Inverse folding.
């Protein structure tokens, strides 16, 4: 197996290390490595194979292109070119797969080569393999997951060190858990892309990640954290999708998770994915969702899978786009944060609607209220009423899950 | 894919149900089903394909034999015959794989057919696939697992309902969680066979299950349960194996697991397997280790794997038998139960050896003692001394894990 590798950063280094120490002699050979600036890699192994020119990679006689450059536009271009030229592709690029997975896998099928992307979701956790192979005879009913390490780290810091969001984000940036521009992580876009990929495979319908209900963690305050703790919960950025009567729904949002639920115990870069199949029941997978060796390990297993089963592809990836269904009538439990001065009004509406609720805590002019079995539609109505009567509407709705 | 199925019990029914509802039209066709007594299956689907004669199965033109009869001797015979005749085999039989896996997979390789056995360990949890495929580039360092539902159910009952072992066993038998003869489960043999299979694959060396350190749960008392609770632990039958400097060691034994450890929260028929790889780190898998549909799902995925990748086999199964290493000098924390009257003697020896220890609880003439960082060799010496001075030795040693 002759590899062209695009990118020699964190994941690339992990992969190359694994190839070099391969004890099984699988015959994996590195033919070229594309980087942006060759000088930065002068002390690295395989320096003689490093190039800044993509044409050097394609002019080598490679069987498989490993794409680890991150940048969506170029990655898409190179992946497509490789597949069209009958070259297998392994990628860790969630953006490319979320946006173009269906198109690219069709090209791979036509050309009789493989496109694999285990590392694009949950790093070292082999969730795509489990979904598509081990659960092959199951109708998948739902997915619950923590898929983003940055937000998980920030929320843990807020809980454990009583920090406000901004300070926790700063800490995350200092230790390398968050990027200088953390938008894709903290707004939930990264997690939503990953959830869309998993939902695609699980439900065999193309889910556009932008159609999911997405709420990031940037509005979570210390008051919300304390309120969740009062209820025996920890706030996590939860990814959930499900199918019911053929309709797919899903969200990425801060949720208060009871401490008995394994999702509440996931720390730092660890990911958890729980998949519910109609035959096997729930299967949960836990492991590192990021990191050089963890993600490198997932890329490596894709490479060895292609060696073992040349030309195989996921049959579940479909180009039938599905409408992501939103049900504003679904009743859930919520922690909602209102301005203190509006609370009397809120209380009246909740009472008039026979809803069960109670104040949890108040701080800095805000009050958090736990409301049982309420619809988002009703919460929207309350917000609308507050706005029309001169109050500020709620700052955040945190769903509570057992 | 033309199947001959041996056995139409719990797992067979789950599998056949999945085949019948297969939405993907994978072309799986049932050619014959072997049972012991045809009259018992008169109201079942595919009755016309049921036979009591194995020759009816082999005389059909089958590609794959699915072996689900349990009985080790016949299962081995039929599996071997199938493989020798160029027929793929899928089995859920841990006894056959633990005892003859190496021989059988060699025959499969020679004949260019597949032998698959995902369902033999941890039921619906795809641990063999994850070990052999998803962690392909990793050196596996250790395995920690709960692999037996019967003992897990009994120990949970003992904790939650304060039952003695005998009463908890009776309850387990009443609700179908334990067999009339529960020996293989409660003595730890079932778990040891499964651990041996996993260790085989993980360490690529044949581990004889009888060479593992095995201690069942039949000697665990209510006092032990209470003592573990006092330390913030729950007693679980833990399977552990590891490799260090090329030496494999492993045990199946009751262990006091701290409640923060996910192993402590596994209930009933659920299994947990945590595998540590040198690159990916720890991957944990949780799901149902038994049951009609869960185990049927694992068998089904093996069948679809053979359709996708005909002739493929695990490369990790080796016939190089390894010595399972025991290190009596390794220091661990233990809860040890002594007769109350011997405690003064025990106390003196522990003090003389500068060991840190403390009494936990006493009941019915027994006392439980928590001893830190002590070797099994030292505990053996104390037992020997007790015996020589007219006392009874300790009743049980429960290892404590964080």
């Amino acid at each position: 197996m002759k590899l062209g590798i695009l990118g020699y950063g964190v994941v690339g280094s992990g992969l190359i290390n694994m190839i070099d120490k391969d004890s099984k002699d699988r015959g994996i050979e590195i033919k070229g490595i594309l980087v942006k600036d060759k000088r930065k890699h002068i002390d690295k192994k395989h320096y003689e194979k490093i190039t800044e020119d993509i044409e050097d990679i394609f002019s080598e006689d490679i069987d498989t292109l490993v794409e680890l450059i991150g940048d969506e536009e170029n990655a898409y271009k190179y992946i497509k070119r490789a597949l069209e030229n009958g070259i297998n592709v392994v990628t860790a690029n969630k953006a490319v797969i979320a946006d173009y997975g269906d198109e690219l896998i069709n090209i791979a099928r036509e050309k009789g080569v493989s496109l694999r992307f285990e590392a694009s979701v949950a790093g070292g956790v082999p969730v795509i393999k489990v979904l598509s192979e081990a659960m092959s005879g199951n109708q998948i009913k739902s997915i619950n997951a923590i898929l983003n390490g940055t937000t998980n780290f920030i929320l843990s810091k807020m809980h454990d060190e009583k920090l406000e969001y901004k300070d926790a984000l700063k800490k995350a940036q200092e230790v390398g858990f968050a990027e200088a521009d953390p938008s894709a992580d903290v707004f939930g876009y990264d997690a939503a892309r990953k959830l869309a990929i998993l939902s695609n495979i699980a439900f065999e319908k193309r889910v556009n990640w932008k159609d999911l209900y997405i709420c990031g963690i940037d509005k979570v305050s210390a008051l919300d954290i304390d309120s969740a703790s009062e209820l025996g919960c920890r706030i996590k950025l939860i990814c959930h999708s499900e199918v019911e009567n053929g309709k797919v729904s899903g969200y990425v949002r801060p949720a208060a998770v009871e401490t008995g639920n394994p999702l509440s115990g996931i720390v730092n870069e660890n990911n958890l994915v729980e998949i519910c199949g109609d035959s096997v029941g729930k299967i949960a997978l836990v492991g590192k969702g990021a990191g050089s060796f963890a993600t490198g390990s997932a890329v490596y297993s894709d490479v060895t899978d292609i060696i073992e089963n040349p030309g195989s592809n996921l049959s579940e990836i479909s180009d039938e786009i599905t409408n992501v269904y939103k049900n504003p009538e679904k009743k859930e439990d919520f922690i909602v944060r209102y301005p203190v001065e509006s609370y009397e009004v809120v209380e009246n509406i909740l009472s008039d609607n026979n809803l069960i609720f109670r104040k949890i805590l108040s701080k800095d002019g805000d009050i958090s209220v736990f409301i049982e079995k309420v619809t988002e539609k009703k919460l929207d109505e309350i917000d609308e009423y507050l706005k029309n009567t001169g109050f500020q509407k709620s700052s955040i709705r945190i769903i509570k899950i057992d």
Residues 136-288 of chain A form a domain with the Dihydrodipicolinate Reductase; domain 2 fold (CATH 3.30.360.10).
